[in-house]
Write a structure and sequence with these properties.
alpha+beta, Chorismate lyase, two-stranded antiparallel ribbon, 25% helix
């Protein structure tokens, strides 16, 4: 069984997750290796089983491990890497078009406002909710719905997102995070269709990203 180094702050969910993830990234845990049992991890990190279970579920959701019935938790082949957050303005500029964006809304909310927005964060976590539309010339080409974790990036609360896009601000203030990304086809709902000036149900590409750095969750965004 592969060994995992003990985290410095064993009771923190983010630290436990980051410690296991780093063991996978640096090769201490290789594809096919089995993680220690929840009981063993509970003792090693001096924390509760629910916290360990939450960390493992989070790693499984992001594609680092897979929990198999009666087979334990297995490390998977990694297809993701450390990459910078991209800004669509660069893409538009390369096409020789004029880039612009329009801020639709920006407000502070709680993670549990209405329903739980971000499962990895505490329900009472402070978030900055941002909605904007990106343009190539006069044509709306991308809708952005984003939340920023103000516990990790408190300075975002005073940023002026009327004059700079969220992606541009994040590139300056949170460079080179680890991005977990999923891409799929979606139909434009009523709000998206209105924002992008397309018919309801128009096929679109949906991109969902979660960014974190040094064990902290920074931002979660859906681009359409």
């Amino acid at each position: 069984m592969a060994k995992i180094p003990t985290a410095k702050k064993a009771t923190l969910f983010d630290t436990i997750r980051e410690t296991i993830q780093q063991s996978i990234s640096n090769g201490d845990l290789k594809p096919g290796d089995r993680l220690p049992t929840e009981e063993q991890l509970t003792a090693k990190f001096n924390t509760s089983r629910p916290t360990i279970n939450k960390a493992i579920r989070s790693l499984a959701r992001d594609g680092f491990v897979e929990t198999r019935k009666r087979g334990g938790t297995i490390v998977l082949e990694q297809t993701q890497s450390w990459i910078p957050m991209t800004d669509i303005s660069s893409y538009v500029s390369k096409l020789g078009k004029k880039y612009s964006f329009k801020l639709i809304g920006c407000k502070q909310i709680r993670n549990n406002e209405g329903t739980l927005i971000w499962s990895e964060l505490d329900p009472d976590s402070k978030l900055l909710s941002i909605e904007c539309v990106h343009y190539s010339g006069a044509i709306p080409i991308q809708h952005e719905q984003r939340v920023i974790n103000l516990n990790a990036l408190p300075e975002a609360s005073s940023a002026d997102f009327i004059i700079q896009s969220p992606s541009n601000w994040l590139q300056r203030n949170a460079p080179w995070p680890h991005l977990t990304q999923t891409i799929g086809a979606v139909g434009a709902g009523e709000v998206i269709a209105d924002r992008l000036n397309v018919r309801h149900g128009t096929p679109c590409i949906g991109i969902h990203q979660i960014a974190r750095n040094a064990g902290k969750y920074l931002t979660m965004v859906t681009f359409t």
